[in-house]
Amino acid sequence: MEQIIATLGSCFVTEGWHESWESGFLPKLGADVLAYFRARADGARENAIEEAKVNAFVGHCGQSLDWIFGGDPRGLICKAAANSPQSSGLPKPSGTRDKAQEVSHGLSEFETPFLQVRHLALAARMMGSSDDMPREPGLALDAVADKIVDMMDELSEERERLWRLSREVAYPE
After folding, report:
1. SS3 93
2. CB-based contacts of 121: which residues, under 8 Å, 6+ apart?
3. What's the pTM value of the predicted model, to 2 decimals?
4. Domain extents for the chain?
């Protein structure tokens, strides 16, 4: 998140970006988001209001939660390629583009809760493995967390399949 905020504030994005960045609400929102991320890294609990700020900032700046939380840059790479001169010069099939955008939008909406549940499951796994936890409840918590992580991994595979499908529909060979 530090890299995103520093880049958006200091690099050329598009004509007029710096003027809107400097006079708009994004620097304050970015500072709030960065403070929240730092607090979470220091062990603070999740906060739904702050998570909403994260989602708003990410949405306003066209970033990817997959990249922020999982280090997966594919969404950013493909978004940039879709706006490239190469892509704009390609013929678009009629009718299927709207469906592809709908699938892509659905996947974007799926990103935040998907990652939140996975991170909660991993946190539950860590708590269940703690030496401070009673042995039996810890084992039960580990089993539940493992099941959630397994389910989320299956959902991740489905998300990947849908993402590929949206690209195939939008850009058939």
Report:
1. coil
2. 145, 148, 149, 152
3. 0.52
4. 1-63, 72-173
